[in-house]
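Q&A log
Question type: sequence-to-structure
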Amino acid sequence: MLTVQLLCCLTVSEELQTDRLSPIQVLEAFQWRAIQVNEKLNCAVRFLPDARKMAELIEAKYRFQTRKPPLYGIPFSIKESIVALSCSTLGYAQNLGKINQKDAAMVTTIREAGGIPFVLTNVPQSLLSFSCSNPIFGTTLNPYDPSRTCGGSSGGEAALISSNGSVIGIGGDVGGSIRIPAHFCGIVGFKPTGDLFSHVGSYASVPGRPLICACLGPMARDVDSVVLFMRIVLSLGMHNLDPYVIPFTFQEEVYTSEKILTIGYYTDGFLPPISVCGRVVMMTKEMLEKKGHRLVKFNPPDIMHLAALSCGSCILDGGQYIYDKLRNDILDANTVYTYWMYFLPLWLRRLLGKILPSSMWRVRFLLNLFVEQWKNAGLDCLICPVNSCAALPHSYPQKLLPAALFTIHYNLLNFPAGAVPCTNITESDEAELKQRYVVNDIFSSKVFNAFSKESIGLPVGVQCVALPFMDVVCLRLMSIIEECWTALKNTGCS
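Response status: OK
Response body:
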């Protein structure tokens, strides 16, 4: 059975389509592996009881038939906040027992295309965190080091997929919640342009955020699997389920193009990245240049203001919704530290609730400025760190929120973005950090403590970004980068 679990999604699909594997065989293999992984990492919260019946039905209907549904027999893991005829708690104890009677539009689309949702995965309480713990299901561990977080909020997905417990999964991303866990766990994650996929039936940390795009997207161990999902699901007409979904087709000619790309790059952020996170960007730059692409130093305009607006756009009510939810719930230890803002005096929260929505004109101004600078540089796409750090100790994310500022503004900008695993922290990376990392505030002090020891082997990735609706360009860049790093690893030099 383990052989099946080591296959990528593209290969599993080919084996199913040609009847060399059956849906029941594949489902059982991943159920068995997911149970094993969950015992070690605590990443799964619920195995869906209808998965076996669905596998039996589609196998009886389509096996040995020439034409099969495009996702025939592929088992999917699903982030717990995405409704799948089950209870979506979002890590709140108060939501236990509230059973959803209808699938989310994304889950419906997967089922109708022959896919089999089989397990729901863990999330942090409220979803607004890049750690992964809650008072109901506890803490999900990182597969590379159980003393460190798997990331969040799609952390359960990343941990399960990284450990071969799922071949592909669906996460959600409002500030890096697909990309950061992918980076921390050494897998691929992709946040599409907003409204390419329906949000109907998918719960958000805060309902009704008009300025920042929460996106559903695929997570897998390789870029080909993510591309397979995007290619198929974009062709299924999800706009028929949700009229607000933008009809969009996967542009094969763009993905297979040999056009030379102009690619921007930068490594600077609010919190300076540890040396390996910057090194990965610069090594990727050099490899892309060797392939003939043009690399251009890019300085994002007013990045600090953009980051502040991005964070503020998540809580346009001044934190009132989160405050009300947490006040009536059991608090996870990590939540207490992270959400200090939601316990501000009522008068201050009301004031923020008035000030933040009035920032809409500033958001539009910065969006236009960013795009103008991008166009002036002639960029097709961009590379930068996913995060200032690799996987952090469990208690650190809530105290190091600035580390996540490499991702959140691409939600505000509504740019497609993905994370690609590249390398792992080495002894020399640790040594370099001890020698060169400048400790000048409480944030950098915590980073130094986390990565000056016991961090060897943690995965590190790079973030790829493109303009809105240039998702296929972004995926092409991700594929090129994966190919470059795979070739380097095969030489033993990464």
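Response note: The chain has a mean pLDDT of 92.
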